[in-house]
Here is the input.
Amino acid sequence: MVFKNMRFPILLAVAFFLIPGLILFTWPSPSASAQVEEVLSNYVVMQKTKTSIPGMHDGHQIVVALPPREDGLVWRGDITWAASKPVEIAVLHGYNSSALSGKSLSQFGEPLKQKFGNVEVAMSLMKPESGTSYASGSISFVGNALVFHTAGAVGGEPFTVTYTVAASAEKIT
Here is the structure.
């Protein structure tokens, strides 16, 4: 009978200590919040290791190092990397093909372009040579986004890349 009367106080004590503990345990950590803010801020300094995901076409693998900006600003900075396989750097630029007349398109052609999400982009695709037998390099860049990319001989194979990037969001003049 004593235990029956103790059920409510025990349940109350468990609820009192367990629920706040669960809230604190599942609350986002300050470092996780800082990482989100860092990516969304206008100045980033990041060092990350990522594995590739399938690209927009068969036989392509990508790692998004700097996500596309949707605020009219562009990234300007430097990136240094080491990868498990040779990679290309794709710097994406907002592209508006409807601004060109049909005559211009037929006469001059178009740059390498791609749909990235809902946005049409022109791609600066670079394959830097490091002068070593290792898949590594360092470049300066300006664009709406920066992506590591593989295609062709190693394109269907996943890769790992470790990179350090320092970039600021700049207004287009």
